[in-house]
Design brief:
With 290 residues, the protein is mainly alpha-helical. The protein is built from nine helices and two strands, in the order E-E-H-H-H-H-H-H-H-H-H. Helices cover 60% and strands 1% of the residues. Disulfide bonds join 173-191.
Amino acid sequence: MSNHRYHHGGSYMHPRMSYPHHFTYVSSCVKYMIFLLNFLFWLFGGLLLAIGVYAFMDKLKDGNGWLRLDTVYDVIFNISLVMIIAGCVIFVVSFAGCLGALRENTCLLKFYSMCLLMFFIMEMTLAIICFVFPQYMNSFLESQFAEKIIHSYRDDSDLQNFIDFAQQEFKCCGLSNAGYQDWSKNEYFNCSSPSVEKCGVPYSCCINATDISSGLVNIMCGYGVQEHSVAAASKRIWTSGCIEIVRVWVERNLYVIAGVALGVALLQLFVIYLAKTLEGQIDLQKSRWS
């Protein structure tokens, strides 16, 4: 018997489309690509969280169970806490993406794609501000962070290690345009301090901090340099502030940084597209069942 049907009067009616019983609108390729990408980020988030918790507990033990968290700056400058927060966010969002794709849950996928969209908008906003208003960013960092970071140098071992690493890698000393004189704002390096480090700077500012013959670090190499002029001090230490040095480095490597940023942005947009595509396929499949 023919499946073609006719209305009264002889008009032709297209036969209803039929699909095999096992047919699904949900693409396995899209589904498992989202799952795999998010599984990798889920592992990374878990690792970051574990390292942050370990560092935080170790710091808490060294501080006899006490940790200062009076202001938002105490959280920002506490690297272990930043790692915990970042790890938690990555862990939760990527887990939502994993589970949402694997279980074909549209609520979790909507939450996941909205989080990615928020991250994308925040990143683009920050990038535009940095590239369009670099002098404003310089002034903001110097006014809001420079003095607080210098003041907190010895209060947090993780922050101290990070500052030492940055000063050695970028060959700078201090943060603002004052350069090495920034260290006068630290209670240990201030010239009025009773410490043996008074009028000094951290060893990471020194041009030759490590003795070539012995391989040992001379932590006293920066003692007393604040009393010297820039010309005299420059023979022993780096004198320029790190914010300006980093800005110059960014300008010199602008195309590389822009290329990496563009690649990350396109990857985020691609993953958002995959998530929204999977959402649409799941909704289409549900409508078929109903």
